[in-house]
Amino acid sequence: SMSQSSQYPLIQSKPDYHSILSRQRPMIHTMATIIDTQCKIVRQLLSIKEQSQLFVKETSGRLAEEAGFQDLSSDLL
């Protein structure tokens, strides 16, 4: 029978995973919120980086043009 099985004590002593997960839910939710926020920040930083690179490229090209280096402006970047 089941009670004679050597696995029975192990099965009886197994943690209550449902209650463990229920207790962890608020912390998991908080971590998910933090990770979502970090993802948004990284996306904003990448956008700022791209805008900065574009600005530098346009400014470099304009300065090169004003200085009379039209032929070199495309090779600078």
TrEMBL record:
It comes from the Eukaryota. This is DSN1, MIND kinetochore complex component, homolog.
